[in-house]
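Example 3.2
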Amino acid sequence: TTPVALPASALGPVIAPSVTTIDSVVGKIPNSDSRAVTLSEDPRTGADYPGVTREIVRGALNLDYDFGPVSLVSLTGFTDGDTFSFEDSRREGSVAAAGKTTGSEFWATEQTQVFSQEFRLVSNSEGRFNWVLGALYWDETVDFVDGTINCIANELFSPFPPPGGIVPGVNCAAPIAAITDPLRNADPWERKTEHLSVYGLIDWEVVDKVSLAFEARYGDEEITVTGPDRSSGGSRPRAIDPRGILFPATIDPAYGAITDSVSDDFFAPKVTLQWEPTADSMYYASWAQAFKPAGISVVASLAGFNPDTSKFEAEELQVWELGAKTMWVDGRWTLNGALFYQDFSDKQVTSQILDPGGSGLLVTVPVNASSAEIIGLELDTSFWITEGLEIFAQYTYLTSEYNDYKQNTQGPNPISEAGNCTPVTLGGGTTCEIDLSGRDLELVPTHAVVAGLEYRRQINPSLEWTFGTNVIYQDERYTNAANTVVLDSYSLWEFRLGLSGDRWNVQGYIDNAFDDDTVKSTLANSYTQGFSVAAPPFTFVLPSNQIPILANGREVGVRAGWRFGAN
């Protein structure tokens, strides 16, 4: 971490003037080989936490009816999943280590059921008009039981604010170990989603070699969430302090349950103009509008369910695209390209705010950025050097920007990351309006490449061997909207060697052949061991943390398959 200065405009109105800097992770995430695994043991057993157990059952039924002029397609799906998670959620080393005064464990059960049914009517005409009509229904029910424990028992002044006496911190291992499952007072959550949409497509050959396609989908979606009430009559967060100073010494049960729902509908059209001057070329231009419906998030479960801070508005996306698909050299060389522009309105992102329930903890809530854009270029090509040898390459160039992204926050971390603050009064209190306009979108690499070759050779009429290799390259990209944390670029090489018969195939493979250890994803977190408080105004100082996900190393294996039925 690095001390990052808070903007002067935040000191006094929003942040205690004594808090001039806050420790944050800034810059490029190091490779996996320079990082240590810092998972804590379960203080009850001294052994590793069991981790995650997952059981999933999926079923699908696809039916096709051909009535001559039209075909009817029925697609039915069902998923039933059960997950139990019990793991260290701080990832800051042993909870029992000397001087350690924080700890946290994630304990949860989740049951998910999804049912979907789609009907599609397709014309089989060879005339100037072709069409598709369809309807889709799906519903999802998620029952989530949260028994997470957070322990924060750092050294502090009490009573607060100073002057007061220094109360030393205490280790959290024994208090966490004393909490058995019944004492977790686990919070039940339920989320129900119901979706219904109808769609259609008309493909019209306007004149010879020129066609115009119109397609659209109308959808209606409702989300209902029931979660624990941990704010009525005083805050009861899922956090403990064995001394009973910062938080209660035990996890108290929630006061009851809160239910709220969000309904949204949308209309998503698309228009495509297509020109095929020859049998080996096609050019197109398209415009489309898409939506992510409004909804309710349950990510801030630590402080219970707060509908006011958990709702988010619909995200709208408009896409303009120009493209071409061509073949050359008697069909041996394929060259395709596309140029596109994506315009986001009310893009759905997340932010950190102080818990409205009064726990003092930072919680993650959904917000809508006003606008953002992505401009991109895609090229892909393949060439058959000989009858059995093909080389291929795909390239993507992206540039992105938040055109207008302002949000309100009292968290020292997002304020320091933004580097700016305009104090505003909301609900009788003062908060910062931070401006992230002009920053790049997170997880959008400027350059990405996939390239390789595939070689096939017939040994005899019923036996073939294959060899293939490809490299995957991805450029640097930011992990957050403030553009303060960067994931490094990486290259992965893969090799395959296989043998196949009429009904069987065997393939040996090497993934990540050169054992690239670049971190490809990371989780943003807070470093509770570095927690402190300051006043006035009351400021919860919680340094930021990043948890890199260990990169997959070299993998060597064999895949085999057998085909049943007719050839």
